[in-house]
Amino acid sequence: TNYVQYLASKYNTYGDIREFKTTAGGKVKIGGGDYGWVIDKEKEKAQLLEDIANHAVTVREPVYSKTGVVYGENDIGQTYVEIDLTSQHLWFYKDGALLMDTDFVSGTYVMRDRRTPGGVYSLMYKQTNQVLRGRKLEDGTYEYEQPVKYWMPFNGGIGLHDANWRYSFGGSIYKTNGSHGCINLPTA
After folding, report:
1. pTM for the full model?
2. Strands 89-94 and 80-84
3. Taking the CB of the first residue and of the last residue of the chain, which one, N or C, has fewer CB atoms within 10 A?
4. 8 A C-beta contact, residue 39 and residue 8
5. Considering only CA atoms, which of 85, 87, 89 is closest in space to residue 107?
6. Rounded-to-integer distance, Cα 91 and Cα 100, Å
7. Quick check: helix, strand or coil at residue 91?
8. What is the pLDDT along the chain (188 residues), one digit of tens a residue?
């Protein structure tokens, strides 16, 4: 139990503060989110006990309940989306190469419950042709229903999606006329 706890305290990175070199050239420290490595302590303990009982001579990875992309200080890897909430700009890197960048509109800053959360997240999934819905009202209708072509959630009901109803992106739009928390992107 103590050894597994030691492994977890040494190697778990879930929600850790990471130093990240931004595309704009600076370094930021960013923490929180749902990304990182997590050793499943109960399953790892059981596997170690089984290995010992079987006199196994083995080299293996710990049993993880959540994984990052690569091991090491930069466990994010070389394929990721960088979202700068301050400059309202996004960059998409694949295998270390910049494939695209664009301005966006994030959550409405003056409304605390609509701010886009900071952090390091994994995309939950990717879908096309979805209808995004706000909270359900007492009469059974929804606060809003908005069809989108592309939907990529990263924090529950918050995600990246196209926003064909917007005529411009970037700048200070998000301060008073932002989204409900999502990253609104031009369809192109």
Report:
1. 0.88
2. antiparallel
3. C
4. yes
5. 85
6. 6
7. strand
8. 999 999 999 999 998 999 899 998 889 999 889 999 999 999 999 999 999 999 999 999 999 999 999 988 788 999 999 999 999 999 999 999 999 999 999 999 999 999 999 999 999 999 999 999 999 999 999 999 999 999 999 998 899 999 999 999 999 999 999 999 999 999 99
